[in-house]
Amino acid sequence: MTGFQGDEAGEALTASLNQVQPVVLTEWSVAVGDGRQVEQLLDGGDVIGAHFPPYLDPMHHRRVPAAFVVGVVTWGGTMARPRTPKGRAMQTAARLAVEYPGTAKELCALQHENPFQLLVATILSAQSTDVRVNMVTPALFARFSTPEDLAVADPGEVEKLVASTGFFRAKTRSVIGMAAAVVERYGGQVPVAIEDLVTLPGVGRKTANVIRSVDFDAPGLPVDTHVLRLSRLLGLTTNTDPEKVEADLTAMLPAREWGGFSLRLILHGRRVCIARRPRCEECVLADFCPSSRVPTIHRSNLAGPKRARLNRKGD
Ligand code: SF4
Q1: How far is the CA of 292 from the centre of ligand 1 (A)?
Q2: 46-64 pLDDT, tens per residue?
Q3: What is the rounded CA–CA span in Å between residue 128 and residue 163?
Q4: 248 within a domain of the structure (yes/no)
Q5: 71-81 pLDDT, tens per residue?
């Protein structure tokens, strides 16, 4: 985090805003001298929301030392804080695209060279980690490089190769069955249509959407545990059924963004919005996330008696 001291905070922030208008999607962390300085930033017209660590409430700590670091989230003066699920979804997509840039293919952590290998890797990733899967797939793909090879593989040999990913017997049945179905019904080519993909053994909507969005550049929004959890925390959906969550999210975002949005939510869920210990203080979505644990003041919240009281105290 970058820290600024005293009066420099306002100047640095103003300069930054001038550089990045009209859309500012970055979190600044500045040290401010007191609540009035924050007020001045808010009154500047461009700063819409300010966030404070739980221990620092500007309403009650008017003279905090400049060394205190206060996170100030800003964005363009023409943009309003999103108040609807669709607005929050769009803002989430925009900000996470800055945090985690790249296409769905670039963001996908499962190593693979073609849709068939990605199908195998995604099936193996259930109840496991991408890192673990990437440790076993090189040997698996070296031994069985095509659907035709894997379709006639000895299950015992495959089990040994994928054992460390867990549930290896069921996964072995799925990958061999999937390979056989791809050979028998689709001539050895992984199908693109989701209706076809979900008929393959071991392939549900989540896996099908991974393949579509990552390797076929087709619309697909995989809903895994992170996507479901963050979507609810961010107030994008109230559903708990992955298929309904997928329907809610896809209705709010352009189809070209579905795959990247899902992968970015997954990255954010792993790195920042960690289950049971979300790091809201570091989260670029904290200013509008309904589940944020960071106290927020908002310009509109400062109107009326509270604002007058704050101004009087600052005289
Ligand atoms: S503000 Fe907190 S709860 Fe909301 S998305 Fe960020 S880390 Fe998760």
Answers
A1: 5
A2: 343 444 444 444 444 333 3
A3: 11
A4: no
A5: 333 444 445 67
